[in-house]
Specification:
Layout (H helix, E strand, L loop, with lengths): L12 H5 L11 H9 L5 E8 L10 E3 L7 E8 L6 E10 H5 L6 H28 L1
Antiparallel strand pairs: 1-4, 2-3, 3-4
Length: 134
């Protein structure tokens, strides 16, 4: 048991909803109602590391209306273990689109994400070529 005059709780909403933490004194009724009213939906996050960066240097985020995931984040940093660069892309999806993927295997999720990256960056490359021609 911990005792404190003030506390900041940063736990998943499900922990509060399930009553996994007991508060003494109990939380005020309006706080309990707010916790009960908030709904959390499913989410999917996939992170892939690549040996080479295949996206433009200044491109850090993509919001996709269509595709396997709706948000793609990219970053590159030095690897702490070697002189290599660490090139990472993370895909994120929430709510119904993520919940529709709940039955997919890890391999199916990876395939869907890599296909979206392939289509996206082929398009980006094509647009760059068109811009140079026109």
């Amino acid at each position: 048991m911990l005792t404190a005059k003030y506390v900041v709780i940063t736990v998943p909403l499900t922990i509060l909803k399930d009553g996994d933490i007991n508060f003494i004194p109990a939380l005020p009724t309006n706080k309990k109602r707010a916790i009960d009213a908030i709904q959390m939906r499913g989410a999917l996050k996939i992170v892939c590391r690549f040996k080479l960066q295949f996206w433009p240097d200044k491109l850090n985020v993509i919001y996709a209306v269509r595709g396997f995931v709706s948000q793609i984040w990219m970053y590159t940093r030095d690897s702490p273990d070697s002189d290599d660069r660490c090139h990472v892309i993370a895909g994120f999806q929430t709510a119904e689109p993520a919940e529709r993927k709940i039955g997919l295997s890890g391999e199916d999720i990876l395939d869907g994400f890599l296909q979206q990256l392939d289509e996206t960056f082929r398009l980006v490359h094509s647009l760059k070529i068109r811009k140079k021609i026109s």
